[in-house]
Structures are given as C-alpha cells and as structure tokens.
Amino acid sequence: MSTVAETSMTLTPEHDTRPSASVRSRLQDALPKIVLAPSFAATVVFVYGFILWTIYLSFTNSKTFPSYAITGPRAYQRLWRWTFESDPPSSWYTSITNMGIFGFLYIFICLALGLFLAILLDQKIRGEGVLRPIYLYPMALSFIVTGVAWKWFLDPGLGLEQTLHQWGWTSFHFDWIKNKDFVIYTVVIAGVWQASGFIMAMFLAGLRGIDGEIMKAAQIDGATTFQLYRRIVIPLLRPVFLSAFIVLAHLAIKSYDLVVALTSGGPGGSAWLPSNFMYEYTFKRNEMAVGSASAVIMLMTITAIIVPYLYSELREKPR
Amino acid sequence: MLRKLLIGTALASGLAFAAHAEDVKEVQMLHWWTSGGEAAALNVLKEDLSKEGYAWKDVPVAGGGGDAAMTALKAMVAAGNYPTASQMLGYTVLDYAAAGVMGDLTETAKKEGWDKSVPVALQKFSVYDGKWVAAPVNVHSVNWLWINKAVMDKIGGTEPKTFDDFVALLDKAKAAGVIPLALGGQNWQEATMFDSVVLSTGGPEFYKKAMNDLDEESLKSDTMKKSFDNLAKLVTYVDPNFSGRDWNLATAMVIKGDALVQVMGDWAKGEFNAAKKAPGTDFLCYRFPGTDGSVVYNSDMFGMFNVPDDRKAAQVALATATLSKSFQSAFNVVKGSVPARTDVPDTDFDACGKKGMADLKAANEGGTLFGSLAQGYGAPPAVANAYKDVISKFVHGQIKTSDEAVTELVKAIDDAK
Predict the structure, then answer these.
(1) Is B261 in a helix, a strand, or coil?
(2) For this UniProt entry, which residues form the secretion signal (chain B) (predicted)?
(3) Shortest Cα distance from B240 to chain A (angstroms)?
(4) To pair with B233 at 20 to 30 A between CA atoms, which of A19, A90, A219, B9?
C-alpha cells in the first residue's frame, strides 16, 4: 500500500501531462454521473416532482384549473364517504371493488395460465417455434385494439352469441359485456388473453435457465413429474414470479384504455377502474382535487402492496 | 396520475415554445371537426377567411375528439400560448373567462348586432361579465324524435302528441315485430333522452326549475318521480342489446328500418343525410311528444382568447365570419343544426331544419329555450356528469325505484355543486 503511494508520488512529477491527466481522470470519474444526470433530472421532475404536485393539488380546491390555496382534505373526505356507498354503488365504490376483482383475477390467471402454457411448451414438443409467437403475439397489440376486438367478439348481437345462434345453438346465451354485474369479468378475459402469452414467455425463459442436472438428479431419486415441478421447478422460478407479478401489477393498474375500448365504462359505469375515475373527475368533470386525491390513493395502495413484496423478495435473495 | 404527468410534460414543452414569433395574417384554431360533413362545413369558413387574406392554421390535437382537444387547450393556456380561438362547449367558455384568458369582442358584437340576433339563452355562454368572449357557431336541439317513415306507414302510426300517444305508438311497433325504440345505452344518450322526458312530463317551467336552476324541491318532487317512471317505461321498449351502443349505430337501426324511432339531438340528421335519406319521404322528425314549443339546446362555440394585439385583427375577422349569415346558413345546412342567430333565411334548409329554425325563434321569444343538462348546458360539468351517473344507474338497474332515483339525484347534485 505504502509502496504504491510512494511510486505514484515519485512518478507523477516526472510527467508534464499531470494537469491534463487529472482533468481526464476526473472527467472519467464524472462521466457516468454526467451521462445519468439528464435522465435523473427528468425522472425527479416528471415522476417524483409531479407526484408531489398531485399530492399538493389534492389538498386544494382545484376545479378546472389548478388552484394553489390549500383548503384541506375535503377531496379525501368525499372519497372516504363514497367508499362505503354500496347501494346504489357510488362510482368510487365501483372503481375500487372492480380494481380488487380485476387485479386479483388478472394477475392470478395470467400467472397460472402462463406457467401452465410454459410447462407444456417446455416438453420438447415439435413446432414450438411456431406456437410460441402465436401465444406471444397478443402482447404486441395495444389495449385499444384488444378492447375493440373483444368488444365485437363478446357483443351478443355481433360476435360469439350471434354466430352460435346462426349455427343452430339458439339457447346459447352470453351477454356478460352488457350486464352490469359481469362486465368487469369481460375485462379480465380480454386482459388475460393479451398478457398471458407474454407471461408464458417469461416462464419459458426461466424454465430454460434451470440446470438440467438438477432435474436428472431428482428423476434418479424417483421424483414424479408432479413432484418435480411442485418441489423443484416452481420454487426455482421464484425470481420469474417476481418479475411477472410486477409486470402484471402495473398493467392491471393502468388498464384505463382497455376498459374504455371494451366497455366504454360499462352499463351505468359498472366497469370503471380507479384510473377511469381519476381521468373522468380530473378532465371531464373539472374536479381536479378529487381526481388528484384518487390518484394519490391509487399510488398509496400500490406502494402498500409492492413495497413489502419487493422488500421481502429482494432481501431473501442472498439466503 | 399518469395523465397528470403527461399534462406536466405538455406544460413544460409548451413553455419552451411559448415565445415563438407570430404571423399576423393567420388564424390559429383548435377544434375537433376533422371528419366528414363537419370538416367540409368548416372548409366554408376557411375559404371565407382566405378571401380576406387570413391563413388558417389548425392546432394539432393528438387523438382527436373533444376530450383530447380540451386537454391540449388546458396545456396551451397554462403555458400562455393561446390559440386565436378554440371550439368550446358550454361552461368551459365561462371557466376560461373566469380565469381571465378570454378576449373581448364586445366592439365587434355591437357593430354586427349580435345582442339582438343571437338567442338570449345562448348569450349566457358567449357573454361573460358583459363582454363577448365567444362566437356561437350553431344551435343543436335535443328534444327530437327521428322516425323511419316506411316502418311508420307499415304500422299505421301518426305523429304522437302526448307521452301516452308515444307509448301507444311504441306498442304498435312492438306488436309488428320491430324494435320500437333505438337507444344507445351510454350515459349521455340516456340522459339526453331524459332531458326530453322531463320537459314532456313537467312542462317548460318545471324543466327550467329542475334542470337549469337545480331547485331541490323540484328535483325531489312527484313530477320528477313521474319523469323517472316515464323513462323506465321507455326503456322497456329497447332491444336487450342496447347497452354501450354508440349513438350513430342506434341511428343506423332507424335508417335501416330495424327500429322505429330514436330520441336524439339533431346531429342524428347528419347520419340520415349521409345515408341519402330525405326528410318527409324516408324519415320523419317530430318534437318529443309534449315538448312542442320548447327547445332544449346545446351549442358549439368558438371561444376567443386574449391574444396579443398583433393577432387581434385576425380574431375579429374570424368571429365576424363565424357569425355571418352566409356561413351560418352554409355550415348548419351540412351539420344538421340550426344557425346561432335567428335572422338567417331558411331557404337552403330542409323541412326539419326549417322547423328547427322556426322553433328556435319561437322558443327564444317565448322564453322556452333551455340548456340541456345532459349536454352540459344546464349546469357545470361536475353537476351534469353527476346527473348522467344517476340516470344511467337507473336505466341499468343499479338504482331500482323512482323514489331512490330522486334521492340519489338530489344527493349527487348537492355533492357536485
């Protein structure tokens, strides 16, 4: 250590280039920071800055335009009151219960279906190269396209029901998309259709990454196929579950456009999600304070779910 | 929250470009009349202006549609980068005027005599604090029935004069195996129909008190309950597949003869025109039964912003051209609405248009011209949307009885005020 220091001390005076070398090395040290600075600044301002701004607005009396005088938590009081108005359901009550139903079913079914499809595709079957893109393709569509296509398909007068009636199965009845109590499940169907192929690809990548030796060892020990997946493969896929969960959770929360394209809000607004609520109130009803408050509540809910999950997953990793 | 971020981005980029140089001989126009007949109608205005040497520049709106345009406008105004004018609806004009960003066209208005020619009820939205801030382009009215004439002849129906007549007519259609009432189950369409139902059930006085003054006694009165009962009655005549249907698809059902009648504003006539159907021979337009003599209106306006002095001449030219009789006639013949001034000759209009113009004039003089609550001309957007929520929940069964409906209506409107 001391020798190194001495060497450098004795060496440097002999080089005339000392100042420029120092500038260069300093530049080199700072380069990553300089390169990162614009995106850092953009993130700070446009993500965190506007989060703070939204929180601020939610405590004002903003209507069409932002107003900057703090007037108290009236927007939250209204949301809180609406939270318990279930009969007839307030728009906010509908939005949050739908978020619960949609979020749970969408994430759960996508994970289950994606894993199942990935395991099937992983059985060294012929034609995998053809099948994989077929399942993956829906992800390439925007929510709007998915929504409109499923809207036509599920419409009793145009799509599935009409076709089956023409084929002779006249007792067939499927009008969920027109039914206030079931319309949210059609959003789940369309959403799952779109995302499960992508989740399958994620699991497939995970499955391909598992060491074949472990599998062979387990088989030699006499593990059945079910045990193999239950005890070895699925636990090994844990990081994939984490990634898939985060991808799905954020897709679920921002599914605004799917609801609009598929249901235009549903009969009597019965398909609303909190994002629809937020947009409606902020931009259509000129109640910016209420819209902001609902956005803040969405953010807090997401934080309350994601942060503990991330914390536990990322901490347990080194174990 | 995501949207808010987008707004923020738009704001910031707007700021950056706020200081660019202006061409004086140019009209910057924010609007969402980009397709079909509306775009063609607007071309008349562009040509009128270019004759006077003013170029026309559309302010681009990503995604089209009124909501996107209003979002874009909000960002532009917040950045201090005003367009010369923007297409605006109802209370939006007043909101912007209250924020102090609208221009003042009073001088032009005086010179052109707008005070006398534009219906008084409309001036509520084009005049703020004694100053003219917007030029109305047209007047739509919503209390219309649109009937397929062939179906009407087949079932031997005649013009219904009362609500009971109307129900009898719908029964006839049902017996003949036609869908009696074409309705799109979206909240604004249901609420637009309810506007007419209230006017028919309670009469002009009641409509004004309940739907414009938001008088609580009227809102929870028996007349209002009766209106909800009547709405429920009408809903029994729609096909089971109505929920979520777009308005123009409902109009298409009437055009094709699958359905007898649609209750819709006069923009529906544009669909008939586009399908080459003629009023009187292919379709019939009647006032909603029991509302003859009154007009429930909404209107498109060009809001005029407080632009720098070097752009004011172009703005005055735009406003003058907008309210010129020739443009009012040419535009509204195409659009299906009626002129926003009552002294335009009706020679170019079809039978429905002529009736619409005569009705508007009479309603203006008789004080029976009312803003449509469903279309945002009866109350500010927060209230109007709360109203639409309640109507839609009633139609789709979340709210089960008329008693519950009026309670909810009073509560929702109170909440939104």
Answers:
(1) strand
(2) 1-21
(3) 9
(4) A90
Query: What is d(CA B351, CA B278) in angstroms, rounded to the nearest whole number?
Result: 9
pLDDT given at position A191:
94
What is the token pair recorded at B268? 């529906």
End-to-end CA distance of chain A: 34
Q: Which residue of B has its CA nearest to A67?
A: B99
B55-112 per-position pLDDT tens digit: 999 887 766 667 788 888 988 888 888 999 999 988 989 989 998 999 999 999 999 9
Any idea what the Cα angle at residue B62 is, between residues B58 and B68, rounded to 5°? 95
Mean per-residue pLDDT, B367-377: 94
Under a CB-based contact definition with an 8 Å cutoff, are residues B219 and A133 in contact? no
Fold of B141-294+369-416: D-Maltodextrin-Binding Protein; domain 2 (3.40.190)
If one looks up domain A77-316 in CATH, what number appears? 1.10.3720.10
- Same topology between domain B23-140+297-362 and domain B141-294+369-416: yes
Residue linked to tokens 């029935």:
B145
Residue in B5, B381, B395 closest to A268 by CB: B395
Helix boundaries (H) for B31-90: 36-51, 65-78
Please give the residue of chain A at the shortest CA–CA distance from B71: A283
pLDDT band of B17, cuts 50, 70, 90 = very low
- Cβ neighbours of A138 (radius 10 Å): 18
Fold of B23-140+297-362: D-Maltodextrin-Binding Protein; domain 2 (3.40.190)
Six-digit token string for B346: 């009706």
A155 at B interface, C-beta within 8 A: yes
* Predicted TM-score (pTM) above 0.95: no
Strand, helix or coil for residue A89: strand
> What CA–CA distances, in Å, run from B252 to B158, B262, B283?
22, 10, 12
Shortest Cα–Cα distance, A267 to chain B (Å): 6
The pLDDT of residue A10 is above 70:
no
Segments making up each domain of chain B, as ranges: 23-140+297-362, 141-294+369-416
